[in-house]
Design goal:
Length: 394
């Protein structure tokens, strides 16, 4: 069996003299493997078949250690220290030929480090270290100086920057406040304008709403009027259907009844007229006969009145006077109770009797007004001679 994987190798050399005669120790690492070409496989099979990785590692390690010694002898300590890549390149070039002859391939090689037992490398390093320290101190001083200068300048610039910044901040604040005030003024102006516009729009909207409401009310009233007109028409039709037609029927009925009644009345009137004509004729004849009798009686009475003397008239007047007094006092007889307020009761009764007498005393004037006969004069003329006769007789 032949292992085909990469085999790592660690290499350490004993003290080897460099080109300058300084003995140094070196340490490196490498990776080797069997080449995959047919020729390399045959060579590797001839050399390492059955030895495994350890056998390959031992052979390769010995070859590389020898090559490292060879290269160290051709270079100085300073060259090796400063040119490690060059050292590794030379080792790879010198070892490639030997390894390929055994079917091996050097994948990589690196120098890990060098050292010596005489202190040569340290001595080389001291001046460098001192110079490095010196340069470091100078650089540090320069750096500190530069730092101080830069710090002072930075502080000055920082202070200036701070003052400028504060001034700019103050200016910015002032400008900000001015802008805020200007903005607030603009906002207030726009707000006032917006409020005014809002109020104006609200007022306009209210006016529009009122107009629309008025239109709606007008439309509602018009619709109500139309509805009322329709209702009136409906009621009229209903009235016409329920009342007018009934009234017309009733009117026709009443007219028919009235015509029938009229005919009946006319018939009755014609009958009554005929009966009345007969009755009137009879009554007229009776009245005529009665009138003739009364006329004859009146004629006889007139003739008798012509023969009447004043004494007869006085007698008749005296006969009718109690009836007249009775007629005047008759309403008082129908009074249930007479209440006289104030004064003496007997005086009140006397006054009532006197009023009856006054009414009777006015009767001659009434008779004179109605008949033209002055009863008072007749009585005076009649009674005056009689009184004189009595005086003379006495």
């Amino acid at each position: 069996m032949l292992p085909m994987e990469v085999i790592p190798i660690s290499i350490k050399t004993p003290e080897v003299l460099t080109h300058g005669g300084v003995p140094i120790l070196s340490e490196g690492v490498a990776q080797v493997k069997i080449d995959s070409s047919d020729q390399a496989l045959r060579l590797a099979a001839e050399q390492f078949l059955g030895l495994g990785k350890d056998g390959i590692r031992d052979v390769a390690q010995a070859i590389l250690e020898g090559k490292m010694r060879e290269v160290i002898g051709t270079m100085t300590v300073e060259d090796i220290y400063r040119g490690r890549q060059e050292f590794a390149k030379r080792v790879v070039e010198t070892a490639h030929h030997d390894l390929s002859r055994m079917g091996l391939s050097l994948m990589s090689f690196s120098l890990m480090g060098i050292s010596d037992t005489q202190g040569y490398i340290d001595s080389l390093a001291r001046p460098l270290i001192a110079a490095a320290k010196r340069d470091a101190a100078i650089a540090e001083a320069e750096t500190e100086k530069e730092a101080v200068i830069r710090s002072s300048s930075a502080r000055r610039e920082a202070e200036v920057a701070r003052l400028q910044s504060e001034a700019q901040i103050a200016k910015a604040q002032w400008e900000n406040e001015a802008k805020k005030a200007e903005s607030q003024a603009g906002v207030n102006q726009k707000k006032a304008h917006a409020d005014f516009s809002y109020e104006l729009e609200r007022h306009k909207l209210n006016q529009e709403i009122k107009k629309e409401e008025a239109k709606v009310r007008i439309i509602e009233k018009e619709q109500a009027i139309q509805i009322e007109g329709l209702e009136i028409a409906r009621k009229e039709k209903e009235l016409e259907a329920s009342v007018v037609r009934t009234a017309d029927a009733r009117k026709y009925q009443i007219r028919a009844e009235a015509e029938a009644e009229e005919y009946r009345i006319q018939a009755e009137a014609r009958g009554k007229a005929e009966a009345l004509r007969l009755e009137v004729a009879i009554e007229a004849d009776t009245i005529r006969q009665k009138g003739q009798a009364e006329a004859e009686a009146m004629t006889l009475k007139a003739k008798a009145y012509e023969k009447y003397t004043d004494a007869a008239l006085l007698e008749q007047y005296l006969q009718i006077l109690p009836q007249m007094a009775k007629s005047v006092a008759e309403p008082l007889s129908k009074v249930d109770k007479i209440v006289i307020i104030g004064g003496d009761k007997d005086l009140g009764a006397t006054r009532l009797t006197a009023q009856v007498g006054q009414v009777l005393a006015q009767m001659p004037e009434v008779v004179k007004t109605l008949t033209g006969v002055d009863l008072a004069k007749v009585l005076k003329d009649k009674l005056a001679p009689e009184a004189k006769k009595d005086e003379k007789a006495g």
